[in-house]
Amino acid sequence: MLAALVAGALGWVGPYVIRRLPPSVDAGPETPSYQVLAGAPRLSAWLALGAGLLVTIVGTAVPSVLLPAWTVVCGVGIWLAYVDARTNLLPTRIVWPLYVATLAVVAVEAWLSGQPTIVVRAVIASAIAFAVFWVFWWVAELWRSGGFGFGDVRFAAPLGLVLGTGGDWAAPVGLYLGILIGGVVGLVLKARGHDDAFALGPWLLVGAVFGPVVSSVTG
Fold first, then answer.
1. Fewest beta carbons within 10 Å, which of 2, 41, 142, 167?
2. Pick from 176, 162, 134, 2: which is nearest to 77 by CA?
3. Helix, strand, or coil (residue 127)
4. Buried b / exposed e across 116-138, counting CB within 10 Å, b at 16+?
């Protein structure tokens, strides 16, 4: 309950942060500005609801000592999911501070639980996630430039970090689920005639949240 409330509070302030982001150099002529995005009706309420729901789902599968880091990732990650869904952009000015904040919270969790291996496992999982997604991006660039956004590579780092706290299988399962769900959505959109690029970030977040749930059931 507390984690859902804190995540919801983080989600609620999302529009205030988004509104203050500087314009992206990668934005196209038809990409809505961050100010326009932040002005969507009842956006704070929707982001708060989404963040609270996500952390509630992951809270069914991880111990309470690991929930603070997930609360940060869900509360801020919902901002990124929204921005990516509307613009196909994942702002670096949010992604990297999210990584630093998550790492700090994971370190505190490891200290409070007396298990330093938690932070070591998390950093390793994050590095592997970033490297794997970088390879995906590099291969995609060879095939068709712009086919895989580098923002997804950056976003994989904080997601891998928090997934790494949950055991050996949470990270690969969570990241694979995100790619799988995003791939299915992309195929459906293509079948319906949408040839434009689509946002993978929201599905990476959803896959990460369900990673510990699925790995706990199957493992």
1. 41
2. 162
3. helix
4. eebbebbbebbebbbebbbebbe
Compute the average pLDDT of residues 165-187: 86
CA 85, 90, 91, 96 dihedral sign is positive
**Are the beta carbons of 105 and 122 closer than 8 angstroms?**
no
Q: What is the dihedral of CA 189, 215, 119, 157, to 10 degrees?
A: -10
Asked whether the beta carbons of 85 and 199 are under 8 A apart, the reply is yes
Task: Please state, as a whole number, how many other Cβ atoms lie within 10 Å of the Cβ of residue 112.
Answer: 11
| Number of domains, the chain | 1
- The per-residue DSSP string of 53-97 comes to HHHHHHHTTS-GGGHHHHHHHHHHHHHHHHHHHHHS---HHHHHH
| Sequence-separated (6 or more) residues with CB below 8 Å from residue 92 | 151, 154
